[in-house]
Amino acid sequence: MNIQIFGKSKCFDTKKAERYFKEHRIKYQRIDLVQFGMSRGEFASVKSAVGLTSMIDENAAGAEILAYLAYDSDKEEKLFENPALIKTPIVRNGKKATIGYCPDIWKQWE
Question: pLDDT tens digits, residue range 40-64?
């Protein structure tokens, strides 16, 4: 298993996800989403696994601008440019990905 956790430093669910993998003794790589963002390939992989709509953090400051964008390609570009608008944690395992705290799905990956 090659686990990556993309999260925000103040996100409670990101901390819970990290604790889950620590408790199950599964190595993971934590990436600060706001500071480092995602590569285009990582972004595309997550989008294909969970869908663009579920990636949007509607509670994030500035997220209301996404509602005014008509095309998904515009929303996708805005999300990629502003990773603070992405819901966290994003947990990747190869081509598989989850958004939020999803221990039931992670258990199936073991």
Answer: 999 999 999 998 888 888 888 877 8
